[in-house]
Amino acid sequence: MWYLCVFYHRLLDYRKPEVESLAELFGAFKEDPENKSLEWRLPENHHPDSPFHFVNLPSEEIARNVANRSILVKGIYELWGEGGSFEELEEAIRSYPDERKLPYLTPESTFRITVDSFGKVISFEKQKERIQQLSYIPFQGRVNLREPDHKFWLMETDNYESNNGLPPIVQRRIFFGREIGAADRKLLPTYQLKSRTYLGPTAMDAEMAFLMANQAQVKPGKLVYDPFVGTGSILVAAAHFGAMTMGADIDIRVVRDGRGPDCNVWSNFKQYGLPMPISLLRADNNLPPWRPGLKEIFDAIICDPPYGVRAGGRKSGGRKLLKGVVGPYAVPDDKRTDHIPSTAPYSLVECVHDLLDLAAKMLVTGGRLVYFYPVLRDEESTDINFPEHPCFKLVATCEQILSFRYSRVLLTMVKIAPYTEEIAEAARIKHLEFRVNHLKWLEDGNLRSAVFSPIDTHSNDSGDTKSSKLKYRGKYV
Amino acid sequence: MRLLTHNMLASNIKGVANGFPLKIEVGQVVEKHVDLNPEFLKNMFAKLDYKVLVEASKTMGYADLPEQAEPSMLESEDFLRKLNHALLELHLEEGALVCPETGRKFPVNKGIPNMLLHEDEV
Is B116 in contact with A283 (Cβ distance < 8 A)? Predict the structure, then answer.
C-alpha cells in the first residue's frame, strides 16, 4: 500500500536509505528477497529534495515499525486526500472510500487534528479555521489532544526555496492523512553529546550515530564491532537498539583510562543504563589480534575511520622503522612490561583496505559494514570511486557536506559472498605492499593537506568560484 | 576482559605460528551479573572454541562447565546459565595473557587487554 512519508528537512541524502534499511529489518522483503528496494514517488511538481514522498510498504505494521524506529521520518501517514487547493482536497477526501475512513471516526474513539506547514508559518487563528473547514469529514469521536486514539494531520506547503531563480523543491500542495507512526526524536536530547560524560574530539554526533545503527540494521541479540571505538559514541547508539557491542582502539588512554573512574567508555554506557560492551581492547586494526580460524562472528561493523582530517590514524611500527632508516628497536627485557611502542601514521587507503578485509572475514553473510568515507568535493567530476570488495555489495551512499572542500559519505555495504582463500591471499599481498611502500601511500592519501592547503588563486578566474556557490545544494542542510 | 574475548584473541607476533589459546595469568577476577540472553548465547556457541573456554574458566576459578558440549545442550537452562557465567560474567580485571609460543605477556589492566605489539614484533 502507498503511504505518505514526510521527512525532517535535514540530512537529505540519508532519508530514503534509512527507510529502506529499516523496511528490510522489519521484514518488508520477506516475500521477494531478490528485490530489496522500495517503490518511491513524489507529489506533483516536487523536487527529489522535498520532504514529502510517497512510499509503497507491504503493511501498516511495517510502516509503523519503520517510522517509530527512524530518526529522519517525521511521520508516515495513510493519505486520505491531497490537492493544490482546499476545494481539491475536499473532493479527494470525500471520494476516499468510507470503509477506510469510518473505522477511525467512531463515537467511542478519541482523535486530534494537527495543522502543520512546510516553508511557512500558520497563525493559531488560521489553524483553527482550517480545522473547522474539515467539518465535511464525519468525525464522531471526542477530541483528546494529549493521547488520542487517532492522529490526523493537515499539512500544507507553499512554494519553497524558489529564490535565486532556481526551481522550488516543493510546490503548493495540501495533504490530509492519518498518522501511522513517527520518529521518536526525544532520543536525541537524551543522548546529545553535550550531556555525555566522556567525550573525545571526534565523538560521533548522537543523531548520526543512530542513523549509522539503523543503516547497520542493529537489533537485540546482534553483535556489533567498532574497530576505532574511541569514546564509544557509535556503540552507545547500537546498544540503545539492543545490540551487544565490542570495540577496539589503538590508543590505550582512551579505552582503559578515560578521564578517571567515572569518566570513561564504560561510564558512557552506564549513564544511559545500557548494557556494558562485551569487550573493549587495545588493538591495531592493521594487525588485528583475532585467532586464526575465527570468522563470521559480527553481525555489523560500524565505524568512523580516522582519515586524517580532524584526527589521523596510527598503526604499529615506528616512522623511522618503516622508512628503513633504522632496524627494529629491540626492547630491553626489563622494560618490556611498560614499554610504549611507537606508531606510524596510517594512510586512508591502507586503513580502508584493512577495514574491508576485516569485515569480509568477520561479518556473517548478510551482515553490514557501515562507515564514513571522505570525499574531496570537485564541481566538475561527479562520479566518485568508492572502495569495492568482492565480498560486498554497496547498498547506500549518503553524503554529508562538511566544508567547501570536502564532504564525508556514509557507505553501507552488505556482505554477499564468503571470504575465500584467494581473497585472503590477495589481502595478504596488499598488506605487504603497504608496508614496503609506506611513504608513497601516505603521500597519495594525504587528505588533510588537500582540505586545508590555501586555495591556489592563480589557477582560477576570480568570478568562477563564487558563481558556483549559488547553485541549490539541498545537501547543505 | 570476559572469556568470550579471550576465546577470540591470539598472539599475532611476527613469526608466531601458534598464538592460540593465550594462557591466562590471573591477577584479579571480578564477577558482574549479566542477564541471560539465550539467543545471543546460542549464536556465540557456534563460533566458540569450547575446549578453550572450559580451560580458561578453570583458570579463573570456575569449574562447573561440562567438559564436552553439543548444540542440543543449549535447550537446557542450567547449561545456558553456566555458559553465561563463564562467557560473560567472569572478568579478568588485572592480569595478563601469555603467548603460548614466545611467553610474551600481553598485560590486562582495568579489564582492558593491551594487544599492541612492540616494534620488534611486527
Answer: yes
Q: Give the closest residue to A63 by CA, choosing from A6, A147, A146.
A: A6
CATH number, domain with residue A12: 3.30.2130.30
Out of A281, A289, A341, name the one closest to residue B12 (CB). A289
Domain annotation covers residue A458: no
pLDDT level of residue A473 (50, 70, 90 thresholds): low
Supply the range of the domain harboring residue B106: 3-116
All three cell numbers of A380, joined, read 566538475
Same domain, A131 and A223: no
Query: What is the tens place of the pLDDT at every residue in A159-209?
Result: 766 555 666 788 889 999 999 999 989 999 999 999 999 998 889 999 999
Rounded distance, CA A40 to CA A183, Å?
19
* Structural domain contains residue B74: yes
- On chain B, the residues whose CB falls within 8 A of the CB of A341 are 116-119
Q: Check which CATH number belongs to the domain holding B87 and give it.
A: 2.20.25.10
Task: Check if the beta carbon of residue A405 is closer than 8 Å to that of residue A451.
Answer: yes
Is residue A15 a part of any domain in this protein?
yes
Give the pLDDT confidence score for residue A444 in this predicted structure: 65
Distance between B100 CA and the closest CA of chain A, angstroms? 13
Structural domain includes residue B101: yes
Q: How many helices (H) and strands (E) does chain A have?
A: 16, 17
Tens digit of pLDDT for each residue in A243-260? 999 999 999 999 999 998
Average pLDDT over residues B31-57: 94
Q: What is the pLDDT of residues A82-133, one digit of tens each?
A: 999 999 999 999 999 999 999 999 999 999 999 999 888 899 999 999 999 9
Residue A109's Cα: distance from chain center in Å?
Answer: 38
* A265 found inside a domain: yes
- The per-residue DSSP string of A302-320 comes to EE---BSSSSBEEEES-HH
Q: Which residue reads 523496511 in cell numbers?
A: A23
Residue A315 lies in a domain: yes
What's the confidence (pLDDT) of residue A455?
65
The number of folded domains in chain B is: 1
Number of compact structural domains in chain A: 2
The pTM assigned to this predicted structure is 0.91
Q: What is the pLDDT of residue A469?
A: 46
Please name the member of B4, B10, B119 whose beta carbon is closest to the beta carbon of A291.
B10
- Residue A326, chain B, CB below 8 Å: the answer is no
